[in-house]
Amino acid sequence: MSDDNTLTVAVEDYPIAPPLSPGVGARRKGPKTLPRLPLSAFSPPNSGVSESFPLPPSPSTVHPDRVVDASVSVLTEWKKQAASAKELEGRAGAVVVKVATVAEVDGLEAHGVPILSAQVPFNLEDPELPTLPTAKFPVGLATTFTKPSEAAVKGLTAALKAGHIVDIDVQVDVADGDKAWEDLEEFLTKATADTAGAGTIVLSNILPPPHDLELPIVKLLSHPTYMSYQAHVASLSLFPNLFLKFLPPTWNAPTPPTPPPGQETAAISKEKKEWKRRIKMYLGPAVEAFGFQRVLFGSSPSPTSHASSTLGDWYEIARESFGELGVEQEDVDAVFGGNASRVYAPRP
């Protein structure tokens, strides 16, 4: 304090804060959760002479440690595709197989592929649950949902109370908007009302949902079908023991191929980028609502899809789309393997 009553402060006692970046305003009032950064962000490069920090890994280099395919329809074809997919070399693990009849379960192990689980057909409106065969791996139920009915509600309730894993291929026209989604939610609400959290539901054909590729992305952002998807995928996440399968979409177009390095044409590259942009639009809200632990990768599309898709091609597009969301390695490992292993694991 000086003689003229003026307060004098030493600059070194109060370091000057760095200037705000252009466009950054005053900090909001109230607590603010700061992001956790890895220690590598504060470490200089190994050379010790570079002026820049190392960049994060490219999405093209982020692979899961193991790939568990939660949706396989034809095991012989899957085995052939897995052997020829260089992207999966050393990573292909167990599979979840859908069979056409209960009798086919006995012959699955003869194919030489690790079976995580098998799924037998189940008619939701059939009052009797199918008798499941005894196997070295869990056997669950696979069915479709087309419209709500009291019989379907009773069928799903019975399956869940029995502790089964029920895979439901959603075959309602979500292009109709809220009505189709509301029918699905009403059906699930009634079916799970008295199950006390028993059993597990796995939905497919809504991540991504059926879609018209001719609709420009700029229009899709504000399109009623996309707005409905965002709202209702969040509502679906509120159901306990409910998971989503991340499968090749029903877009009436084949999955873009992944040629060997150096052989990708400009047309193929453009098509893959377009697919990934659309996939990420649907994947982002789903992951935000369900979290990384409730999404399962699979390679066989819904039976309603008539477009071709191979294991290697879909794996590459699905993996890159997921990686471009900026997720951690542990999240990639969960979606492409760990989650399926946990959901379909044998019950104690």
From TrEMBL:
It comes from Dentipellis fragilis. InterPro entries: Metal_Hydrolase, Metallo-dep_Lactonases. PANTHER family: AMIDOHYDROLASE, AMIDOHYDROLASE-RELATED DOMAIN-CONTAINING PROTEIN. Residues 18-62 are annotated as: Disordered. This is Amidohydrolase-related domain-containing protein.
